Amino acid sequence: MNIYNRSSLAAFYKKHPDCKETLEKWYHDVLSKSWRKPGDITRDFNTARTLKNNRAIFKINENDYRLIVEVNYQKGWVFIKFVGTHAEYDKVDAEIVNQFKADK
Asked: How many domains, the chain?
């Protein structure tokens, strides 16, 4: 998969260095994938959850942080839409959040 907005991950783990290793591992793991449907995501990441609008939520650092992406299955693209603490995640709508709109 091609991942857009990687800079948003780096900016986040500069502020939260305890999740750098996990986010970098997630990034490199996803690069090697070829998701064609939501079930492919949950097969590869058993704690991930898929939503409407081709969105998926990943738990980072045992649920300390959350990562929301939008997937274009036909083109093989993953767009990072949100990364934040669990408390920040609780304040957003995962199906429409677009925190990193400026990064597109």
From this structure: 1
Over residues 43-72, the pLDDT tens digits come to 999 999 999 999 999 999 988 999 999 999
Model's pTM, two decimal places?
0.91
From the number of C-beta atoms within 10 Å of its C-beta (0-12, 13-18, 19+), residue 56 rates as buried
Tally of CA atoms within 13 A in the half-sphere of 103 that contains its CB: 16
**CATH number of residue 10's parent domain:** 3.30.2310
User: Which residues, other chains included, contact 74 with Cβ-Cβ below 8 Å and sequence gap of 6+?
Assistant: none
Euclidean distance between CA atoms 20 and 82, whole angstroms: 15
99 — pLDDT class (breaks 50, 70, 90): confident
Domain extent, residue 33, equals 2-103
Report the chain's C-alpha Rg in angstroms. Answer: 12
Q: Rounded distance, CA 28 to CA 63, Å?
A: 19
Which residue's structure tokens are 């500069």?
Answer: 14
